[in-house]
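Researcher: I'd like a structural prediction for the single chain below. Treat it as a standalone chain; there are no partners to consider.
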Amino acid sequence: MGDLEIRAAVAADVPSIVAMLADDPLGAQRESPDDLAPYLSALERLAADPNQHLVVAVREGRVVGTLQLTIIPGLSRRGSTRSIIEAVRIHADERGSGLGTQLIEWAVDESRRQDCQLVQLTSDATRTDAHRFYERLGFEASHVGFKLPL
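Model: Treating it as a single chain, here is the predicted structure.
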């Protein structure tokens, strides 16, 4: 499968990231791969914030996975810092290869390095395969999430 590099995303990675975000029924409804301007603007904001880590997994020069890790200092849990894993995507050609596990392990390791006491993530209620994947990695479905579109 070749060597894998996990590194910070750069502007040249954005088309590949957006293509992965759009490559499922949910993403196809909410992503716009033909208009990269808002994604490039978002990448600039992410890159300027030391608590945001948008990373890509690269194999043989090709972006094959991505996730965003957010570090959140807080007062609850005795002043604990937590992290949130978001937007985990694996290229269709790589699904089932163990790459998703490697990306999540990277995020957990980075969370430890950042002195986080808790790693959390959300997953759309319809993504039952993803739920099983996260449970296999030790995550527990412990909360009910709510969203309010603005």
